[in-house]
Structure formats: C-alpha cells, structure tokens
Amino acid sequence: xxxxxxxxxxxxxxxxxxxxxxxxxxxxxxxxxxxxxxxxxxxxxxxxxxxxxxxxxxxxxxxxxxxxxxxxxxxxxxxxxxxxxxxxxxxxxxxxxxxxxxxxxxxxxxxxxxxx
Length: 116
What we know:
Layout lengths: L1 E6 L9 E5 L13 H6 L6 E3 L9 E6 L3 E5 L11 E6 L18 H7 L2
Antiparallel strand pairs: 1-4, 1-6, 2-3, 2-5
C-alpha cells in the first residue's frame, strides 16, 4: 500500500514538518516502536520536509505505508492552518473492501478539487 499526501497549503516549517526515515519500510519492528523517539529527537538518516526543505502549496508526497513517517510537532503556526489529504492506494481484498460511502478511486482532477 502507498499513501499520497497532498499538502494544500504546502509545508514551510511553521506548523510542523513531515518526517520520514528512508528505507525503514524494510525493517521489522513493533507497531509504534519508534513513536516516542520521533517526538524527542531527529533520528540519524531521517529526512524532513518543511523548514529547510519546503514544499510549495499543492505538493504531493508518495510514501510507502510501512515507511516510518510522522509530523514533527512545533510550537506556533497560529493563523496558518495545515491542510493535507492522505489518500491510500492498495489492492482490494476481503479485509479492505470498497465502501459505497467512500470512493475506491479518485481521478487526479477530483483530488485537485479537494484542495480548493
């Protein structure tokens, strides 16, 4: 499964960066195993999007679902909302059937409309 994160307002470090740890999708670990570490320090080899590596409004980031990723909480950012859309793509199976209330597929045009 992959996620596509759409950042409607972009990321500039004011409201928290997107943290990723490249190649972590190949690791075997307990769910939430590094969750507390992410909040207290930057892990060696991690990549941040936001401050120092900004994403312009309307950016899309494709992330493997097993890749360690999260939000770097930062103080401030009042008056600057952080809007983003997380769209997940996987093969339908017995455990993840498509729902009538949620579309299985959105066109790129429909996703862009959600950012407006």
